[in-house]
Design a protein that fits this description.
By secondary structure, the protein is an all-alpha fold. The protein has a single domain (3-115), classed as Up-down Bundle (de novo design (two linked rop proteins)), CATH 1.20.1440. 77% of the residues lie in helices and 0% in strands. The protein has four helices and no strands. It has helices spanning 7-23, 28-53, 58-84, 90-113. α1 (7-23) runs antiparallel to α2, α2 (28-53) runs antiparallel to α3 and α3 runs antiparallel to α4 (90-113). The longest helix is centred in the middle third of the chain and has 27 residues, at 58-84. The chain is elongated and about 45 Å long. It starts with 6 loop residues before the first helix and ends in a 9-residue tail after the last helix. Mean pLDDT is 93; it is low at 118-122.
Length: 122
């Protein structure tokens, strides 16, 4: 299997692109204060999934997936802050929060499969 075939990775990459598109529309102050941290957190989700995928020991893989989950929750916080500061509309907020919730479930499920044999997954 290739990293690009991993659904959780695909979702993380899509979320990061959505966040990037949102942040790039903001004015300079918003972009360089909240926006920079927001985009970095969203980018870190997929980056950590891929780094964990490249590790050959399940404990290392899991650690990077935990970092990814932390970045996902940081992205959630920045989404809430962007919404409360009226930087994103209600519609965009609901879409991003929905994406984050969906990714959270899939990431947790993926974490739970690491280190288990395929026999245990049947």
């Amino acid at each position: 299997m290739d990293i690009d075939d991993l659904r959780v990775y695909q979702l993380a990459m899509k979320l990061a692109e959505k966040v990037w598109e949102v942040v790039m529309k903001w004015n300079s102050f918003e972009k360089y204060s909240i926006g920079k941290q927001y985009a970095e957190a969203a980018d870190s989700i997929g980056a950590n999934i891929s780094e964990g995928f490249g590790r050959f020991h399940f404990k290392d893989s899991k650690n990077f997936l935990y970092y990814s989950r932390g970045s996902l929750y940081e992205t959630r916080t920045w989404t809430i802050k962007a919404h409360s500061r009226k930087l994103i509309s209600d519609e965009v907020y609901k879409e991003l929060i929905g994406d984050i919730q969906d990714l959270s479930v899939k990431l947790n499920n993926y974490i739970n499969t690491i280190g288990k044999s395929s026999k245990n997954l049947e």
